[in-house]
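Lab notebook, bench 4. Still working through the backlog of constructs that have no structural model yet. Next entry is a single chain of 131 residues. Request: give me the structure tokens for it.
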Amino acid sequence: MPMQTTESLKRRMKSAGDLLSVVKTMKALAAVSIRQYQRAVDSLRDYNRTVEMGLQIVLKEKMGTTMRQKHTKMKRLGVIVFGSDQGLCGQLNEQISVFMLDYLKKSGVKKENRKVLSVGARVADYVEDAG
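Model written out:
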């Protein structure tokens, strides 16, 4: 192998230094991304807790009134539809709404005997538009 000139060694050292700089920058960006994802996970935990508490309140209130009512042969149906508040979910909200509406039609329960709870602003819009 021929001996390298000092110029070629300097170029290689500069390239190695540039590469090190890029690697350090990538590490810093990765650390920032990890922190963002950790914050997102924490937010989702809070959101989950809030939704669970809200559902517990709704179910406790409804169970109290249901238990006091006499049992009737009338069919009733309650549906909870989970969608999203944000975009970037593809057609999730539309598809889940269509599925829910088909299910309600097939259930045979009259419209006035059905209750629908929508979780997520976008899915709520689809449900409202459908009536």
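Notes after review: The radius of gyration is 29 Å. The mean pLDDT is 83. Flag for follow-up if needed.
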